[in-house]
Design brief:
The chain is an alpha/beta fold. It is built from twelve helices and 14 strands. The structure holds adenosine-5'-diphosphate and magnesium ion.
């Protein structure tokens, strides 16, 4: 549905070249919520702007519904853009227009009749839960309400793609959750494909089906959210995941634990899927007369599956502990944690 084929975008600032996007190939399928995460300057906004053709690729092609959008005429492009809604971090509302006026704006541009516009605006106000705010001005609204107006406006012309540039980054955590729920509703009830970019991993965790991680203009890792969270490959991906998982206690706590435990080894045990239903740690250690101690960790729900990430130490005869480790390796992901490097 949206396809980037070996897309690069280079900006020229005087003599300096900035390669904002480098050789990106990605496919965003119909109906999915695709998240792109990266630190500031990674090239995320540029990637989005290539989709609605606010930027043109320096090389490579961007496809939408099988059409190479770089080849469209200005007129075709305007029609195509009506099919793509966009929402922004700073909402981009017209302050001199009412809420209803903001939502009506794209409908006026598209030449809808007054009657049709009024009907559609009401429908949208209801969908985003702002029926009572039609006559208010943006200044009178909270950040969350402003973003609801932004979403209603983006949906006005019934696009089949919604692109979101840091749509929740200016909002507090509770309001962020409300807006993410609304975006999920947009996706699930209206079947709208979503491409969203963020620097916040919890946004990816809450609503995305797929994720791509960008760094210095490149996609360094991508996949299904569950697989990426449970088995990240790139150090940057691991950093983003640590930001929502708290998978390691502070150095102080770790050192204190190490002193008290006579420098015992510490292992990270990761369980996913079916195995979370079985008491594997208890069964395997019991069989070999070894004790285990969970130092830190969590079991979370991610895309309707359980995912455990625990720091565990084992005590017993070293031959027995080795047998436990060998056996656990066949059942779960397990690796020694190097406390000094962590
Ligand atoms: N219009 C532009 N002209 C020159 N450089 C730009 C332009 N837009 C973005 N860049 C540069 O491209 C890089 C990626 O920017 P951007 O896509 O905004 O990243 P992100 O959204 O991940 O923060 C940055 O180094 C930025 O300064
Ligand atoms: Mg950006």
């Amino acid at each position: 549905m949206i396809e980037f084929k070996d897309v690069s975008k280079t900006f020229h600032l005087g003599k300096r070249e900035v390669q904002a996007v480098k050789n990106v190939s990605l496919t965003i399928s119909q109906g999915e919520i695709f998240g792109v995460i990266g630190f500031s300057g990674a090239g995320k906004s540029t990637l989005l702007r290539l989709v609605n053709m606010l930027e043109r690729p320096t090389s490579g092609t961007v496809w939408m519904h099988g059409v190479n959008i770089s080849t469209l005429s200005a007129k075709e492009l305007r029609a195509k853009r009506r099919n793509i809604g966009m929402i922004f971090q700073n909402f981009n509302l017209f302050n001199a227009r009412t809420v209803a006026g903001n939502i009506a704006y794209p409908l006026k541009l598209a030449g809808y009749s007054k009657q049709k516009i009024a009907e559609r605006v009401n429908e949208l106000l209801q969908f985003v839960g702002l029926e009572d705010k039609a006559k208010d001005y943006p200044d009178q609204l909270s950040g969350g309400q402003k973003q609801r107006v932004g979403i209603a406006r983006a949906l006005a012309t019934s696009p089949d793609v919604l692109i979101c540039d840091e749509a929740t980054s200016a909002l507090d955590p509770d309001t962020t959750s409300d807006i993410l729920r609304l975006l999920k509703k947009v996706n699930r009830e209206l079947g709208i494909t979503m491409l969203l970019i963020t620097h916040e991993m919890h946004v990816i965790q809450s609503i995305c089906d797929k994720v791509a991680v960008m760094e210095d203009g490149e996609v360094i890792e991508f996949g299904n959210v569950f697989e990426t969270f449970t088995n990240p490959q790139h150090p940057t991906t691991k950093r983003f995941i640590s930001s929502v998982q708290q998978d390691l206690p502070s150095q102080e706590v770790l050192r204190e634990w190490q002193d008290k435990s006579n420098n015992s080894k510490l292992y990270r045990v990761i369980f996913t899927g079916e195995i979370t239903n079985n008491p594997v740690l208890s069964q395997v250690t019991k069989r070999h007369d070894v004790d285990f101690n969970i130092i830190y960790g969590s079991v979370q729900e991610l895309q309707a599956q359980l995912f455990g990430n625990l720091l565990v130490s084992f005590t017993g005869e070293s031959a027995n502990v080795n047998q436990v480790l060998t056996e656990l390796k066949t059942l779960v992901q397990i690796e020694e944690v190097n406390i000094h490097e962590s």
